[in-house]
Amino acid sequence: MTHSIAVHGGAGLIRRHALSPAREQEARDALHEALQAGDRVLAAGGDAVEAVLRAVCVLEDAPVFNAGRGAVFAADGTIRMDAAVMSGADRSAGAVGAVQRLRHPIRAADLVRRTTPHVLLVGADAEERVVAAGAERCTDEELFVQERWDHFVRARAEGRVALDHDLDDAEPKGTVGAVARDAHGHVAAATSTGGLANKHPARVGDTPIVGAGTWAWDHTCAVSATGHGEAMMRCCAAARVSALMELAGLDLAAATARVVHEELPLLGGTGGLIAVDARTGRIALPFNSGGMYRGSLDTEGNLHIAIW
Amino acid sequence: MTHSIAVHGGAGLIRRHALSPAREQEARDALHEALQAGDRVLAAGGDAVEAVLRAVCVLEDAPVFNAGRGAVFAADGTIRMDAAVMSGADRSAGAVGAVQRLRHPIRAADLVRRTTPHVLLVGADAEERVVAAGAERCTDEELFVQERWDHFVRARAEGRVALDHDLDDAEPKGTVGAVARDAHGHVAAATSTGGLANKHPARVGDTPIVGAGTWAWDHTCAVSATGHGEAMMRCCAAARVSALMELAGLDLAAATARVVHEELPLLGGTGGLIAVDARTGRIALPFNSGGMYRGSLDTEGNLHIAIW
């Protein structure tokens, strides 16, 4: 059976002239490494959930993206992170919202999925719970990236809440995510983010919301979204792709294109998503913004990494 | 044009023999009062959003239900509330999660909708933000109901997380919600809850999640759910009703029945939902549990209030 994986590092304006060759290479390398980490699991006959968790851990570790290390700052100067993972096999899901000082928020989300009767835990109490279950604590310093702080200071000075790649500067800083289909026909999705730069510290976006930023169901597909989170939430973007496949008979490419190019714009939403077809393992990576850091890798070793 | 409104006060076991006549009357009176509060807005040509907000405020004030005054206690003995409101006209939505000491969480959710660029704010920082925008603060004592505390002490002693009406005792204690269609053809939904008794204090359920516990879209319907929140989240129950109408051509009754009686049970979910058809104003009130506190009122003054 065929297996495949796709990853993203956020969608946004991403102007070519503003991205240095060194930064671009750093982003491409991180996407490649994430794909390989997930692919190793899949090639060994492993589970789609573990594949997406490993891929997202690599992207959380990469300071070039806005998740884990390198996450952006909320309006109060803290780092507040959201993450979610969903298994298509049983639609079990786990998520954390507005959490601080966790090394790998996506692992924390998986601990919610596996060790609690709940789907979503938020705030400081959530941190305590997942750390008790084995999540790795870290310091604010370990997540800190100087460029991200400088970006926050600019956003705050300009009094605006900035989407990942909205600011015309040289830094990639996107939400990260992964979707995979394993050799057993199961799919999974995982998404992790620091949210919007200069956001209200209480804000929870689409990333940890099942059906909005993250969705997986073996009956249809797995989806991880990135972009204007509030628009994703208001149309349940990720579950919408699934519903269009199941109920309207669209294939993955048509369903994702309709959500990204027709429906999201009606809500003023820019962004993109990555999706994998549960039946065929086919990948779709549409976006309606200037660019989206993205990549995919399939059973045959076909590697695709792109930004614009 | 026809207008209509429906409300609920939670679904669950609700054994007849355990509910005293006095309590039953108290619940029925609160549902009736909520319907009238919303209907007054609708009859005057008012907006569906304001109608559901007023109805839910009445239910939040009623100590007999698990929202606002009378909310249940989390495992740490605090009251943590979730609420959401959505307008079908523009799919604007606002929600709060895990908030304390707010007199009317549903008004706080509406302030998120109207005064922030966000959809969901959580925790203590959310409280600060909505209070700054005009939400009414209250003390823990003002939300406190002795019977609810006794129930919590029992749930904690038995080491279990209790769904609204799972415990075989004499107290109604359900999530509350309202859906309405106004004379202009707009629909809205609002839901408010204290969540599960003895829940983890970080837990956020389906109530404040757009598409899970709360959904409104003038193209299809408005929905407010109650019951096992995690199951609602894992199938995006409220948006699912909408998708079944829009994409599969089901009418409101068939779409709600399919979600409640076929799809939720596959995820082990018990509960129910109230829904109003945006086109016809028709109401559906299905549940798969022992009972659901519910009521509806239409243009012609047809009043329906029931528990079993």
Sheet with the most strands: spatial strand order of chain A: 4-3-2-6-5-1-12-13
For the record, the count of structural domains of chain A works out to 1
**Greatest interface by residues involved:** A-B, 44 and 44 residues
Order of helices and strands of chain A: EHHEEHEHHHEEEEEHHHEEEE
Helix percentage of chain A: 25-40%
Radius of gyration of chain A equals 17 Å
Structural class of chain A: alpha+beta
The CATH homologous superfamily of chain A is termed: (Glycosyl)asparaginase
Average pLDDT of chain A works out at 94
Q: Span between N and C termini of chain A?
A: 31 Å
| Main sheet specs of chain A | 8 strands, mixed
Tally of separate helices of chain A: 9
Shape of chain A: globular
CATH topology of chain A: Glutamine Phosphoribosylpyrophosphate, subunit 1, domain 1
Low-confidence stretches of chain A: none
Assembly annotation:
homodimer
Q: What is the second-level CATH architecture of chain A?
A: 4-Layer Sandwich
Write structural notes for this entry:
Two copies of one chain form a homodimer. In chain A, a hairpin with a 4-residue loop joins strand 12 (291-298) and strand 13. The longest helix of chain A is centred in the first third of the chain and has 23 residues, at 21-43. The radius of gyration of chain A is 17 Å and the shape is globular. Chain A is of the alpha+beta class. Chain A has a single domain (4-306), classed as (Glycosyl)asparaginase (Glutamine Phosphoribosylpyrophosphate, subunit 1, domain 1, 4-Layer Sandwich). Chain A has nine helices and 13 strands. In chain A, the strands form two sheets. Chain A has an eight-stranded mixed β-sheet. In chain A, strands 8-9-10-11 form a four-stranded antiparallel β-sheet, with helices on one face. Chain A starts with a strand and ends with a strand. Helix content of chain A is 35%, strand content 23%. The A-B interface holds A 76, 91-93, 97-98, 116-126, 128-129, 161, 199-205, 209-212, 229-230, 233-236, 239-240, 243-244, 247-248, 267 and B 76, 91-93, 97-98, 116-126, 128-129, 161, 199-205, 209-212, 229-230, 233-236, 239-240, 243-244, 247-248, 267. Strand 7 (203-204) of chain A pairs antiparallel with strand 4 (120-122) of chain B.
